[in-house]
Structure prediction request, 236 residues.
Amino acid sequence: MERNRKRRHQNALLNQVEHEILMLKERRVHGQADEFLWRQKDNTYSDQFQSKETWQILHGPSPTWDCHRGIWFSFATPKFAFMTWLAAKNRLATGERMECWNTNVHIGCSFCAEPKETREHLFFDCLYSRQIWEALVGGLMGSDYTWKWTNILNQISLNGRIDMRLFIVRYAFQATIDSLWIERNRRRHGEKPITNTILVRMIDVMVRNRLSTMRRNGVKKFEDGIRIWFGTRRLL
Ligand SMILES: [Zn+2]
Prediction:
């Protein structure tokens, strides 16, 4: 079959396109393989492939790119960090996002009467989750305390020394996000709801376990962790 046969189109523009393609094919050096080039940040092309740059060109700049420092830190629990990362990128299947894929799905909050569940509502506009967050870190964060999503991300991503206080806030944040997401999914599957009083106790145990593991492993600079935690967290 003749692959370069010129087709006739009704539309004059398509004929023009067809013509340009033929011209390019004729100009091409025969016997030479096509070369793949990747677009770079500055709009030039190169044969160097960089996954991060290509990802950013395809998806556009990410507003939460800077918060990786506050999420992927030493002694984090990978599962919690991953869930937090998904939340930071707004990739969790919240009601608001599910509505785009399926109009027949329940998109309200599983904890309260809010008709549209968004990431910001879950973490921590919702009274159910806000009470948990405040009980866990209200005392620890003191005057820096905030329950607003973007403010929390800013707080945990601050440059500078990672002290015990910052470590606990980061860790409690991730444990809380993971626990709330699990409880939210349990409720959506019709399981018996867990009160936020119980959930605070469950997250308290997760944080305590992490801090005592670190102490047993001799992480010297974090020795005070348990004492600080017991002195600041409040059980509902
Ligand atoms: Zn709610």
